[in-house]
Design goal:
The chain is mainly alpha-helical. 77% of the residues lie in helices and 0% in strands.
């Protein structure tokens, strides 16, 4: 398990929770956004329906990522897994996505 050496257990726990909050807010937003990009490419809907569905599903994805960040007991495992999945999702999007897609 990852320990912050040189800090008291209370301070280390507070730093871990702060890291989770930042990862949930920032990486959660990015992961929800890339999930919506994949969703918009996977469905064959007209532009207005796709936009409406993406707007609704973004909040579902974002809430799920936030829950996922706070579910493990280890702060390190929560932060590392969220950042890893976000990086893999973006790498796959940049590698496979059609050229010229700006949404």
């Amino acid at each position: 398990m990852f320990k912050l050496s040189g800090y008291s257990p209370v301070v280390a726990d507070r730093l871990g929770v702060t890291a989770r909050v930042l990862v949930a807010a920032l990486a959660g937003y990015v992961l929800a956004m890339v999930a919506c990009l994949w969703l918009s490419q996977g469905l064959s809907l007209n532009k207005q329906d796709a936009r409406t569905l993406n707007n609704m599903m973004f909040f579902v994805f974002y809430a799920c990522v936030i829950i996922w960040v706070f579910s493990p007991q280890s702060h390190f495992k929560a932060v590392l897994s969220t950042l890893g999945v976000t990086g893999l999702a973006w790498a796959a999007w940049w590698a496979i996505a059609p050229q010229g897609v700006a949404s």
